[in-house]
TrEMBL record:
PROSITE patterns, per database record: EAL
InterPro entries: Biofilm_reg_signaling (IPR052155), EAL_dom (IPR001633), EAL_sf (IPR035919), Rev_trsase/Diguanyl_cyclase (IPR043128)
Protein name: EAL domain-containing protein
Domain EAL: 24-274
Superkingdom per UniProt: Bacteria
Amino acid sequence: RAKADGRGCWRFFEPEMDARMQARRALETDLRHAVAAGEFELFYQPIVDIRTRRTGGLEALLGWRHTGRGLVPPDAFIPLAEETGLIVPIGDWVLMRACAEAATWPGAPKVVVNLSSVQFTHRGLVDAVAAALERSGLDPARLELEITETVMLQETEATLATLRRLKGLGVRIAMDDFGTGYSSLSYLQRFPFDKVKIDRGFTRELETSPRSIAIVLAVIALCTDLGMTTTAEGVETETQFAVLSREGCAEAQGYLFSRPRPAGEIPALLARPAGDAAAPPA
Ligand code: C2E
Ligand code: MG
Ligand code: MG
Ligand code: MG
């Protein structure tokens, strides 16, 4: 807290900085009550099989419906939730809710849950996943957990042990946002991923950059050789889809098929005759 000491040090804290800190504190106070107040909601975005365009899984994406702030997107509160440790109870809620909702879906698609690196280093994670599976009765093979490269930066032995315990529950593990941040090919060799998600940044450039095509092609080939499947994120155009299809990518996710949708719309979406997220190719 900025205080005027004897020498008038207060000017050190600019008014805007103080305002920003107050806004942050207000957000934190609100966030503390959000789980108990039932203000969180999951949206689900279909992930389609590239060959059939059928929905094989849905990624749970968190939203916060706040009375004054409206619908707050995850990027606006997850960093603060991580800093304050609130991501642990929030993440437990996400796991419980996603498994419970998925257990009611027709056609038994997978449900995909994002894990923060903070959750990953918390000792209760494996128990929280086991509890969510048990309470919902969801087949563990239908749950896929996404982790980012930040997780790999942490102590390797502990990370590996947690990954093995999670896999021991029968769930699948995917590496999210591959190709951004601190990507290292050695992670693919060292950690037991089932799937790699190619970051939206590469997908976006597929139409314009032969270099991006070369990278995506190499990632797909490498993952295939290592026994992992690939999903492309952020697919927005048929041209991107065509390149991914030609290059042998297994799954695609993006606005071309569907935006994230409220949980209430998912059963009807899955019950459609073809299980399609989008119209079939023209
Ligand atoms: P992510 O896991 O990489 O999720 C994909 C993000 O890309 C989502 O944003 C999704 O709405 C967006 N997206 C999907 N398709 C397209 C597309 O075609 N074009 C564009 N421009 N964007 C697309 P969202 O929902 O804002 O989530 C942002 C990030 O927040 C997620 O990135 C994930 O890292 C994090 N997040 C979301 N839900 C959770 C959660 O329950 N727990 C944790 N720890 N993190 C979460
Ligand atoms: Mg994700
Ligand atoms: Mg991603
Ligand atoms: Mg991303």
